[in-house]
Design a protein that fits this description.
Layout (H helix, E strand, L loop, with lengths): L2 H4 L2 E7 L5 H14 L3 E7 L14 E6 L1 H11 L6 E5 L9 E2 L3 H9 L5 E13 L2 E8 L2 E6 L6 E7 L2 E8 L1 E5 L7 H4 L12 E6 L9 E3 L4 E6 L7 E5 L3 E5 L4 E14 L6 H8 L9
Parallel strand pairs: 1-2, 1-3, 3-4, 4-5
Antiparallel strand pairs: 6-7, 6-17, 8-11, 8-15, 9-10, 9-14, 11-12, 12-13, 14-17, 15-16
C-alpha cells in the first residue's frame, strides 16, 4: 500500500519560540486539508506540553529545531508515529529539512520516495528505597551530574550487574547514537551514525584520566548509584529538558527501549553532509 494511502491524520507540533512557527503550522494544516488529510496543530513553547491522543495520528511534523524533535520523540516513540522534522533555523543534526523544503519533503514522503530511520531510545527510571520513583524516555541522553557548577560527584556504575567502578567526575552520561553529536561529543565521546544499535557510557570530566567513554551494546543495562557523602546536590537530566533531583542511595537505571523513534530522513542531505557542515570539517588545501 502506498504511504499516502496509510496517512489520514497529521499532527503538527510548532515551537512558538521560533519566529514564523505559527504561520508555517497554519500553512501545513491548510495543505493537509487540501490533500484530504485531517490535521491538528499543537503549540509547543519549549516546556512540557500536553498532546492529544497520540494513537490517532499517522504522521507528526515538528517545526523548530532538534529540541522540538526530542520533545516529540519522547511522547510519540511508543505510538509508532513517524516524525518529519522541519528546522526553522540552521540545519540540525536531527532536523535536516529546511523551512522552505517542507512541502517537497512531505510530498516525497507521501509518494514513498523517502524512507524512515529508526532511532534507539532510552528508557530511564529512578529507584529510591527499593521503589520506583519516576521514569522517563529520551532520544539523546541521560545525564547524572552535579546541580552546581564544576562540582565533582561520586557515582558507582554497573553494567548488567557487573561492577564497573566508582567514577569521581562532574557526572556520567548514557547517550544514544542520535545523542552522540550533542552533549556526549562535547564531553569527548565518539560520534556514531544515528541509526546504529549501541549506547555510549561517557564520564564527564573524570578525575581519573584513564576513565574513558565506552560504546556498549544495546542489551546492556546501566546502573548508576549515587554514592554516600556527596558534597553537592545531584540531579538526573534527560535530553536536557527534564530534570529530577537525586539523593544519596538513589539508583538510575538506563536501558535501550523496545520502542523506537521513527524519523523521516531528508532526501536533500545525508547525516555525513550535515556532520561535515555543522562541525566545519575541511578536506585539505584546494589545488
Amino acid at each position: 500500500m502506498p504511504v499516502k494511502d496509510q496517512i489520514r491524520s497529521v499532527l503538527v507540533i510548532a515551537n512558538t519560540v521560533k519566529p514564523g512557527a505559527r504561520e508555517l503550522a497554519g500553512e501545513i494544516e491548510s495543505y493537509c486539508i487540501r490533500r484530504g488529510l485531517q490535521a491538528q496543530v499543537v503549540l509547543y513553547d519549549g516546556e512540557a506540553s500536553s498532546l492529544p491522543e497520540k494513537d490517532g495520528f499517522d504522521l507528526a511534523v515538528t517545526l523548530g529545531g532538534d529540541g522540538t524533535v526530542l520533545f516529540a520523540s519522547r511522547v510519540l516513540a511508543g505510538h509508532n508515529v513517524p516524525i518529519l522534522p522541519v528546522n526553522l533555523g540552521d540545519f540540525g543534526f536531527i532536523s535536516e529539512v529546511g523551512h522552505d523544503e517542507w512541502q517537497q519533503a512531505l510530498e516525497r514522503y507521501l509518494a514513498g520516495g523517502i524512507d524512515i530511520g529508526d532511532r534507539l531510545v532510552l528508557d530511564v527510571e529512578v529507584l529510591r528505597e527499593g521503589g520506583r520513583l519516576c521514569a522517563f524516555r529520551g532520544l539523546n541522553d541521560a545525564v547524572v551530574s552535579s546541580e552546581g557548577i564544576s562540582r565533582m560527584v561520586r557515582l558507582t556504575v554497573r553494567l548488567s550487574d557487573q561492577y564497573l567502578g566508582v567514577y569521581r567526575a562532574d557526572g556520567v552520561m548514557v547517550a544514544t547514537p542520535t545523542g552522540s553529536t550533542a552533549y556526549s561529543a562535547a564531553a569527548g565521546g565518539p560520534i556514531l551514525h544515528p541509526e546504529m544499535e549501541a549506547m555510549i557510557l561517557n564520564p564527564i570530566c573524570p578525575f581519573t584520566l584513564s576513565h574513558r567513554p565506552i560504546v556498549i551494546p544495546p542489551d546492556e543495562v546501566v546502573e548508576i548509584q549515587i554514592a554516600q557523602e556527596q558534597r553537592t546536590q545531584v540531579a538526573l537530566t534527560v535530553d536536557g529538558q527534564t530534570m529530577t533531583p537525586l539523593v544519596q542511595g538513589d539508583t538510575v537505571i538506563v536501558r535501550a527501549s523496545p520502542k523506537k523513534a521513527r524519523i523521516v530522513r531528508s532526501d536533500r542531505r545525508t547525516f555525513y553532509e550535515v556532520l561535515r557542515s555543522k562541525l566545519n570539517w575541511a578536506g585539505g588545501l584546494d589545488d
